[in-house]
Amino acid sequence: MKLPHVSLKELEKLKEDNFRARLEFIDTYVERMKKTSNKKWSSEQKDIIGA
Questions:
Q1: Degrees (nearest 5) of the Cα angle 33, 42, 34?
Q2: In contact, 41 and 33? CB cutoff 8 Å
Q3: CA 43 to chain CA centroid, nearest Å
Q4: What is the pTM of this model?
Q5: What are the mean pLDDT values of the chain's consecutive 10-residue runs (51 residues total)?
Q6: pLDDT at residue number 51
Q7: pLDDT (0 to 100) of residue 25
Q8: Distance between the two ends of the chain, CA-based, in angstroms?
Q9: Of 3, 23, 5, 21, whose CA–CA distance to 13 is shortest?
């Protein structure tokens, strides 16, 4: 069985892009949390978790 060629540079770029995207998501989510009342935010989290 022949294994596919894997570019370490390409994997490193994908890792960096993924990390950057996660940080952007966190920043966006934190800003939304700051603008949303605790009652509304808690209710939304409850719906997501399914409790």
A1: 15
A2: yes
A3: 21
A4: 0.62
A5: 90 97 96 90 86 61
A6: 61
A7: 97
A8: 48
A9: 21
Angle (CA) 35-39-49 rounded to 5° is 100
Q: Tell me, what's the pLDDT at 50? A: 82
CA-based angle 42:21:16, to the nearest 5? 140
Angle, alpha carbons 21-9-1 (nearest 5°): 110
Alpha-carbon separation of residue 28 from 10, 23, 42, 46 (angstroms): 27, 9, 17, 20
d(CA 14, CA 9): 9
